[in-house]
Design brief:
Largest sheet: 4 strands, antiparallel
Radius of gyration: 50 Å
Number of helices: 1
Number of domains: 1
Structural class: mainly beta
Strand content: over 45%
Number of strands: 4
Distance between the termini: 79 Å
Length: 130
């Protein structure tokens, strides 16, 4: 068969083409409910803590020294020295250092047990089936 004969025997056929597509959509749907309860619980706690306090030691030392002028309080290391003056009458007036007061501070620590109530919020979630 020649090409011309074949062309005569064949007819043009139109075939429809089709295509499927998928479209995704979101729908809001209620699937359940929950009930939320919030409550406060109180617990008693005890804990050892370190407490510190200062001790003050006051010493009085008589001097009875004649001095020429007054002096402001001063520190010797961590000790505060406070001079106490008195005027005395001799045949002339002189300034006498009567005494000094030594004020020293020390620190002491001790472990003590302290307790108290503490509060905490707790949330319970309950599913409600209808």
């Amino acid at each position: 068969m020649s090409d011309k004969q074949r062309d005569r025997n064949t007819s043009n056929v139109t075939l429809p083409l089709s295509e499927e597509t998928l479209e995704a959509r979101v729908f809001e749907t209620e699937i359940g409910k929950v009930r939320i309860h919030k409550r406060v619980e109180t617990d008693r706690l005890e804990q050892d803590v370190e407490l510190s306090h200062d001790d003050v030691v006051v010493e009085r030392a008589e001097r009875n020294e004649v001095v020429k002028e007054r002096r402001e309080p001063w520190l010797e290391g961590e000790v505060l020295i406070i001079p106490v003056y008195e005027e005395v009458l001799v045949s002339e007036k002189r300034l006498m250092l009567r005494e000094v007061i030594r004020v020293a501070r020390g620190r002491q620590s001790e472990r003590v047990n302290v307790g108290g109530e503490v509060r905490r919020e707790v949330v319970d979630i309950e599913r409600i089936d209808e």
